[in-house]
Specification:
It is a single chain. The protein is an alpha/beta fold and 536 residues long. α12 (157-166) crosses α13. The longest helix has 21 residues, at 182-202. The radius of gyration is 28 Å and the shape is elongated. It starts with a helix and ends with a strand.
Length: 536
């Protein structure tokens, strides 16, 4: 279920009309209706207003969105029994066990890939303040058990705000940057110290019959970050607000080599003995760059980056991210861009441009968000990379297994002529493959007929999980460009099931007699494939 559906069920359970809710949050009823139907995303600010109007928290709505629709229906009519129902475990069945086995096998490549890698995981102080770190610690323990080298960077904004209110001090900001005077700096130190102690305590748990059973997580923290003052901005002295000058990568690596988890606070120190208040994003990106981290992960309020139509973007390059940020700058209609994205997406771009392979933006409200993002094919948030994860190239002998996995289901259904492993191995130089994140997701072949200066386009197959994104077109046009470079003047193909696909791409039907003489000898009159050709 989507967050929109959980909003709808909560609203109905309280007998609040859509128009009444829209009036309370200052939003358009039509847009709220689209959000409830899952046709439009919701930004952090609107979600907070909706949650307040529905007398709950955003975390509650996210939790309900993970429940099946039937459970939500029960909640709507039998609210008092929700807690009891949610605690009833699902009954084990053969299908559930098979699903688990299949999933566990599917994560094996990720387990092999992640061992010994360095991940920097950053999260705001809300994760600790709202008691979400306990669940997060379970996932960190799992990653540590897989020998992932972990660096945590925490924020402290809500804790700092509480201490300022306690001391009756008014926070001051300039373009989103806190003006940290002497009094505010004392609140910053106190808040960061309290958070660090709480995180270290929670990571020290080893309770039997819990996900932390048998855990042996040692936490290292210290003066790993050297900082400098930001100085005067727009005529205002930011005082103790600073920015990262250097990260002690060697010192952190030594702790990681000793199998310790490194915890970094948003504080930095100068050679003159001063302490500076830093931003979470600055520390996280600087640490990831200095450590040459394999992944930088931000836990935030929204589920990821949405485009201007409200669609969640699973992947995007740094270039596309910069274009999106330029398009939404000063655009008041861009309701799908949350405050979080304005902080974290520029940080993700900066990380990618400085060598961090991948940055993940995921929701802190989803239980097991890190595990779902890292160990599933599609993930649950947005991954930002420097370059596109998809590429096309000529196949080699190591690709035979991947090609067979793609074409065997289509051969069984009669879409493709059967080819054995030996046949593929002998003709591997004629094959081209499409890769996504080093996994073969598409293939096609070009068989040359040099005398006629033409080539047969054959064996086009796309992984079912990646269909519908125009990848068949991309692979076809790539093969067509390769054929053109090789000096061929035309392409032809034989098909029994996909004639319209080829017609839509400029092919024209031909008689069998138009085939090259050598191909005519091999034509299967029992299969009666239709012949199509296209001039390059």
């Amino acid at each position: 279920m989507s967050i929109g559906h959980s909003i709808r069920f909560r609203r109905k359970s309280l007998n609040i009309t859509l128009q009444s809710l829209a009036n309370q949050v200052g939003a358009d009823a039509g847009n709220l209706s689209r959000i409830e139907r899952g046709e439009l995303g919701i930004n952090e600010n609107t979600l907070r207003k909706v949650a307040e109007a529905l007398n709950c928290t955003p975390a509650y709505l996210y939790a309900q969105s993970d429940m099946p629709k039937t459970a939500l229906s029960v909640q709507e009519h039998h609210q008092p029994y929700l807690t009891t129902l949610s605690q009833v475990p699902s009954k084990n069945s053969t299908s559930n066990i098979k699903d688990f086995v299949q999933w566990f096998r599917s994560v094996a490549p990720y387990i092999h890939a992640f061992g010994g890698r360095t991940f920097v995981i950053a999260f705001g102080g809300e994760v600790v303040d709202e008691k979400q770190f306990v669940a997060l610690s379970h996932d960190l323990n799992l990653l540590a058990s897989l020998e992932v080298r972990l660096v945590l960077v925490h924020g402290a904004r809500p804790q700092i705000e509480k201490r300022l209110r306690r001391d009756k001090l008014s926070p001051k900001f300039v373009n989103g940057l806190r003006v940290t005077d002497d009094a505010a700096m004392e609140a910053v130190k106190e808040a960061n110290g309290a958070i660090r102690v709480e995180i270290e305590a929670l990571l020290s748990m080893g309770l039997v019959n819990s996900p932390m059973a048998g855990s042996d997580i040692r936490v290292a923290s210290g003066n790993f970050v050297t900082a400098k003052p930001m100085g005067v901005r727009n005529g205002i002295d930011l005082q103790h607000t600073g920015e990262v000058r250097r990260v002690d990568a060697i010192g952190i690596q030594k702790r990681l080599d000793d199998n310790e988890l490194v915890l970094l606070s948003p504080l930095g120190y100068s050679p003159t003995g001063e302490a500076f208040n830093l931003s979470l994003e600055d520390v996280a990106v600087s640490a990831a760059v200095a450590l040459d981290a394999d992944k930088l992960i931000f836990l935030m309020d929204s589920e990821g980056v949405h485009n201007l139509r409200g669609e969640l973007l699973r992947e995007m390059t740094a270039g596309k991210a910069k274009n999106l940020l330029r398009n939404v700058e000063g655009n008041e209609q861009a309701i799908n861009i949350s405050e979080d994205i304005n902080y974290y997406l520029p940080a993700a771009v900066r990380a990618c441009e400085h060598g961090v392979a991948r940055t993940h933006l995921i929701s802190r409200h989803i239980d097991g968000a890190i595990i779902q993002e890292l160990f599933t094919l599609d993930g649950i948030g947005t991954m930002v990379t420097e370059l596109s994860l998809e590429s096309m190239r000529q196949a080699n002998i190591d690709d035979v297994g991947g090609i067979l996995k793609l074409i065997e289901p289509l051969e069984a259904e009669g879409f493709l002529v059967r080819r054995g492993r030996e046949h593929i191995e002998m003709e591997i130089e004629h094959f081209y493959v499409m890769e996504h994140d080093n996994r073969i997701i598409g293939c096609a072949a070009l068989y040359p007929f040099s005398a006629e200066r033409t080539a047969e386009f054959a064996c086009l197959a796309i992984d079912p999980a990646y269909r519908g994104g125009g990848r068949g077109d991309k692979l076809f046009y790539y093969c067509a460009s390769q054929a053109k470079e090789l000096g061929f003047k035309s392409l032809f193909c034989l098909t029994t099931r996909t004639e319209h696909w080829f017609l839509e791409r400029g092919f024209k039907e031909q008689n069998v007699e138009k085939l090259p003489a050598e191909k005519q000898k091999l034509y299967n009159f029992q299969r009666k494939s239709k012949v199509f050709s296209k001039t390059l």
